[in-house]
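Can't paste images in this forum, so I'm doing it all in text. The chain is below; anyone willing to post the predicted C-alpha cells underneath?
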Amino acid sequence: MADASPASESAVAADGPSPSRHAADPVERRPGVVGWLSGVWEDLRVPLERPAAPWRPYFDLSRRIGGGLGRHSVPRAALHPAPWIIVFAVIAWIILMMRQLPCRQSSPDDAVDSYGALCYSDIPLLYNSRGISQGQAFYTDVPWEYPVLSGFFANVARWITDHLGFRAAPGLSAETLLANTHVYFAVTAVMLFICFLVVVIAQIALVRRDSWMPIAVAASPAIMTAGLINWDLFVVALTSLGLLAWVKRHPVWAGALLGLAAAAKFYPLFVIGALFLWCWRAGRLPEWVRATVAALIAWFAVNLPLAIIDFSAWSYFYTYNADRGAEFGSIWYALQLMGWGLPGVKWWSRAVIVAGLAGLAFLVWKAPIRPRLIQVVYLAVAVFVVGNVVYSPQYVLWLVPLVTLARPILADLAVFTVGELVYFVAIWAYLDAKLTPPDGGPPWLYIAAVVVRVAATCWIMSRVVRDVWHPEKGPFAARVVPAVPATEPSEPVASRSRRRRSPSTDTVAAEPAHRSA
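Text version of the structure:
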C-alpha cells in the first residue's frame, strides 16, 4: 500500500486548512461508483492529520443539497476537531457498555456464556474469585498477579463500591454478592472511562490543533471490544501523560508518570528504553537521566511499602511472569498447538525481544535523520508484543495510541484493526471450544487468527521502519528538509535546545524530523 503523493503530504504539513483535492487534481475522475471508490481509496492513503481528508467523499454530497458554506460562515469553529473527538469517545464507550449487557447476570442461578457473547471481563470474575468481594486484602490475603499500582486501582474501586452501600464482607448471600459485583463492575467502568478520556485528551494535545488524528483512538473498534477486559486503560493513561510531559519538555514529570505506569504494568519499561535510544541519537541523554531517576523514585515509592510488609506477596507478579511458558495469543503458543513447541520457550522469547531491540537501536543510530520519538516508542512496544510468550486481547490497548501517532494512514490502521478484531473473535471462540476440531487435531482457525494478528503488527512495524529509513516517503515527508546531510548538524546541542519551538512543531506526531535537539 503506497503512501500519499508528495503533493498530498504537503497539505498535511500546512498550518492552514487543506484545500480540496477537487480543485487541484488535474486528473479527470471516472464517473459513477468506480470513481467514488477510487476517491475513497485515495483518502485511505492520506495521513489522518489532514483535517477533512477522511470525510471528503461524504462532504461531496453538499453540492447536491445547496453547495458549500457561505462567506459569513465560520467553518473552523463549527468543525473544530477536539469536541467531536470527545463526542466519538463517549459514543465508543457507550457501545462498549452495551456490549457488556449480555454478560450481566440477572440471578445467581442464571449463568452467562461470556465467551460466546464476546463480552468476557476479568473485573467481575476476579472480584468474586480472589476474595475481593469478601473484604480480603490485596496481595497479603490473596495472590494478585498484577503490579502494585494495578491492585491499588482495583482496591479504590472496591472502596467506592463499599461507600455506595455495597460493602464487601464474608458470608454474603448469593443475591447480595451478585448485586455487589454489578456495582463494582460499574464503578470500575466509570474509572476506566475517565482513563480513556485522559488518553484521548493526551492524543489531542500531542498533535496539531486542527488534526483529526486522535479520532482513530476515540472511535477505535479496539476500545469498543477490549476496553473492559482488564484494568489496562489505567496504565495506558499514565503512559500517555508521560509521553505528553516529555514532549512539553518536563522530563522529571515524564519520568515520574512512566515510573507509575511501570508500577501498574510491565510494558512502560519499553517506553523508557525507547526514550533512551531517542535521546542517545538526539544528544539529550542528561534529560533521559533525569527522567529515569524520577521514574525509579516513583516506582520505589509505590512498591517499597508492600515489599517491606510482605516480600513474597509483592514479588508474586514477577515470579509468576518469569516462569510462564507459551500461552494464549503468542506465536509460540501457535507453534505449540501445531506440534512444533520449543523447549525453554521463555528464553527463545527473550532472545527474539533482545534481537528486536538491538535492531531498533541500529535503526535509530543509522537512520539518515533522527526518527520521531513516537516511531521509536511504537517499535519498542511492538517488539515486546510480538516476541512475548503471551498476548492477552487487552494488550491491543497499549498499541492503539502509539500506532495512531506513528503511522496515521487509514489503510494501515485498517490492517492493524482487522488483525486485532480477527484475533479478538478467535480467542473467545477457541476458549468456548468452538474452534477445536472433533478429531482433536490442531485448531487451525485459531492458529490462523494468531498468525493474522502477528502479521498485521509486523506489517505496521515494517511501514514505520521504512518511514524511519526513508523519511521522504513517510506520512510527514513534507516536513523533511530537502538535501538533509548524512550526519547530524554541527551546531552544539545546548544552543539548539534553547531555540524557541513553534507551536505547530512541539508535538510527538508533528515534530520536525530534521531537528536533533
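Residues 62 and 70 are 12 Å apart (CA to CA). The two ends are 33 Å apart (CA to CA).
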